[in-house]
Design a protein that fits this description.
Distance between the termini: 36 Å
Helix content: 40-55%
Largest sheet: 4 strands, mixed
Order of helices and strands: EHEHEEHHHHHH
Structural class: alpha+beta
Shape: globular
CATH topology of the largest domain: Glutathione S-transferase Yfyf (Class Pi), Chain A, domain 2
CATH architecture of the largest domain: Up-down Bundle
């Protein structure tokens, strides 16, 4: 049985879980707290970073981007990067946007403060960080709307790793109730489509100890 070492508060790990489910691949999950030293994790990945995938043949793949690329090469159906060089490049570009830019400007300020900071250090969120995240999120939600007005999905006519990266980050912010969905109806429509996919059920079941999810988090028709 393939194994995934991850943590629910890492959006890149959530993205990999979505990718595995989109590929309809069975896997066992092992949750590891990324803020604590774990010798078993270090034995798999010397950097000590999550996620890490161990495939059925014991191939170890580290780094969320490398894992998604590996899955698309070894299990090509359904493709998560598109079928042409241009579509693959666009999927990678947008995935990086959400994995890096959205995470840095929004997820880290909102979910990082309200969830990770609470669980890892039992500390209260920084109000300045929350303010910055709530201001920054509008630009990103507008960009998602702009993309979906022109395409069926973020990177083209089919769902790709770009949608998974965006949804993985947004799902954490949605858990805290900090996504202003009513101000961005087109982005909400896109998220409902992603959220309704069978692959997303795993995320909707996630809970954070001591922090209940927002009322509409697991609602498919919010």
């Amino acid at each position: 049985m393939r194994r995934l070492y991850h943590h629910t508060l890492l959006p890149t790990a959530r993205k990999v879980r979505l990718a595995l489910h989109e590929k309809r691949l069975e896997f066992a999950e092992y949750a590891i707290e990324p803020w604590r030293r774990d010798d078993d994790l270090l034995g798999l990945n010397p950097s000590g970073e999550l996620p890490v995938l161990v495939d059925d043949n014991e191939t170890v793949v580290c780094d969320h981007g490398a894992i998604c690329e590996y899955l698309d090469e070894v299990y090509p159906e359904a493709p998560l990067f598109g079928r042409s060089p241009a579509s693959r490049a666009e999927a990678r570009r947008l995935a990086a946007w959400f994995d890096e830019k959205f995470f840095r400007e929004v997820t880290l300020h909102l979910a990082g403060e309200k969830l990770t900071r609470r669980v890892s250090a039992n500390a209260a969120p920084d109000s300045r960080a929350l303010k910055a995240g709530r201001e920054n999120i509008h630009t990103h939600l507008q960009y998602i709307a702009w993309l979906t007005e022109r395409r069926s999905w973020l990177a083209g006519e089919h769902i790709t790793v770009a949608d998974l990266s965006a949804a993985a980050n947004l799902s954490l912010v949605d858990y805290t109730g900090d996504v202003p969905w009513n101000d961005h109806p087109l982005t909400k429509e896109w998220y409902v489509r992603v959220k309704s996919r069978p692959s997303f059920r795993c995320l909707l079941k996630d809970t954070v100890p001591g922090v209940p999810a927002a009322a509409a988090y697991a609602d498919l028709d919010f």
